[in-house]
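[stage:ingest] chain + small molecule (zinc ion)
[stage:ingest] validated
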Amino acid sequence: VLWEAHQDTVALDGMTVDPLGGEVRDGRLYGRGACDVKGGIAAMLAAATALAEIPAARRATVWLAFTVNEECGFSGATDLARLWAADEGVARQAFEQCRGSVPWAELRRRRPAGAIVSEPTGLDVVVTHRGVVRWQCLAHGRAVHSSDPGSGANAVYAIAEAVGALRRYAGEVLARRPADPLCGGPTLCVTTIRGGRGPNTVPDLAQIDVDRRLGPHEDPSEAYADAVAFARQAVGDCDGCVLEHAPPWLASPGLEARNNREWAGDVQRVARRLGATGRIVGVPYGTNAARLAATGIPVVVFGPGSIRQAHTADEWIDLAELGQGARILLETARCVEPA
Ligand SMILES: [Zn+2]
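[stage:predict] done
[stage:export] tokens:
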């Protein structure tokens, strides 16, 4: 069994509690990452410690993997997943790059029968989630003195056209597409805008960031191409400016509820037996699970804490729930047939 969690957190800025103090008050631990997802890591470490006391013949072998860079690109989980890639050449290359102490044969022989990716799911079992693709759109114009705007090409006007087109695409095209019953419909929004060089210059450059959330079955590159085609057609020629839709800098598919139902049922049974709700659910946010699922390993997302406390100014986790999460993890590893 593989237990995976990401070590990175969002930034410490703007927090109303000591981000790194780890203050415990009224059964809650406060700090950046308490909920997303160091609390989940703590539950995994506690469960692993208890598991080590059990003879190997009576429990699963557990791989612990704490990866980096989940929040901004899933790159750690992408590399981890390569170790168990279907293509043996890819796996071998990943193995040689990571220079760990585990022998190659052992790694292959102990390919995980199931994986649990920790995120704050409130001890529910997530079987599906949305994906994401992000890109930048840039308007290139021609700078001139603002006393004679007609002789230039105003990039801010062009980017405003693109913003309007993408807003219509989200509201009129995506909103009509069928929603996934567990994780909702596809969405798109413009998240940043920048442009201009000064108050007396016709701007020659303006740019936006676009965030498109995918249904679990959608392909990131098709979603990008569709939105860009709509924007190109809607904007047309924009008074001498050129609109450039840069290739996506982040593209991550969603998690499909396909081969993970049985594994999810195992985790659910244990969770319920130990007093958690353990509902089978889908969520709107992306996780490392999609990268691991690409190897064919059944993956669910499961952990203590609520996503509503993730990334907040007073991030916290309930310590009783963290303990409950640890007991559930330990029990799932005792139920799996030892290899
Ligand atoms: Zn997280």
